[in-house]
Description:
Largest sheet: 5 strands, antiparallel
Structural class: alpha+beta
CATH superfamily of the largest domain: GAF domain
Distance between the termini: 41 Å
Radius of gyration: 24 Å
Strand order of the largest sheet: 5-1-8-7-6
Number of helices: 12
Number of strands: 8
Helix content: 40-55%
Amino acid sequence: MTTETxxxxxxxxxxxxxxxxxxxxxxRLLRGEDLEAVSRSLGVTAAALTAWRDAFLTAGEAALAxxxxxxxxxxxxxxxxxxxxxxxRQELQPPPATNAVGEILRRAAQVxxxxxxxxxxxxxxxxxxxxxxxxxxxxxxxxxxxLVFNLRSGVVRTIFVQVPSRLAPSAVQRVxxxxxERLAGLTxxxxxxxxxxxxxxAEDSGGERDLLNIFVSQGEDLFDLRDxxxxxxxxxxxxxxxxxxxAGNNIRIRELLELTEERNTLGAAxxxxxxxxxTITIGGENSDPRxxxxxxxxxxxxxxDLSGVIGVMGPTRMPYDKIVSLVDHTSLLVEGxxx
Length: 339
């Protein structure tokens, strides 16, 4: 019997990789090894490997600059490298299966806030134009079903559906089959606008028809994931509250609390930037007067069907060069993690 030995670089203690092991993984890619093969051998996502490689090459390119970088540039590059390391460390901790994308963005907003000492903000992707790949119906109680949306780009959402009485498992399974046959491959917007027509002539027995009628009558609400309450994610407001512009100023602190507790104002401002690339609005440049005392620095991200916004909110006086660079860099890292 022959035993094959490989030089796989596995995670270290606690499931994390040390810096030398990450470097060795990147070098394997640079030597020409297949990305998927390295990903499988290490048990690390291809997105994480790609982000490591890009960070490695960026650092190398900076080191080859013809002119020595000044102290400010070096500090910015170090912050970018630290940002990448922190995000990758967070990415290696598996997020909850029900909302992996939202968890990545939440962590990215937290890390960005820590490094900039501002309030990290992020908007989850708009799901209206995302394609449904598969639906699952799971009985969780006598009068309740769990509806699991498996969307393209790896997004998973779950909601509960109230039913009048316990349904036979065969009826639930049959309805799940009908829904997948008729709805898979459509966007959520298409499903909402055409659901009654698509289910009208479905063959069914009594129990199946009762459940299908629920989808016909409530379909517009069941398939509307646009107003997810977790769509605006924030880092720690304490970082911003501790800054001189806010410390001891009760009026400014109250404004900050209102914006972070009632997120509609911030959500609307961020939503307007979804397709605008890198955007900076200072004080009165913000369209909503409730944001007149703040600056928003944001960058949009896109990965397949998913698009959203990430950035920071802070006082009107801030080190703009450093923060703009970090926000822009974060949006690229997020795109890599979501790809």
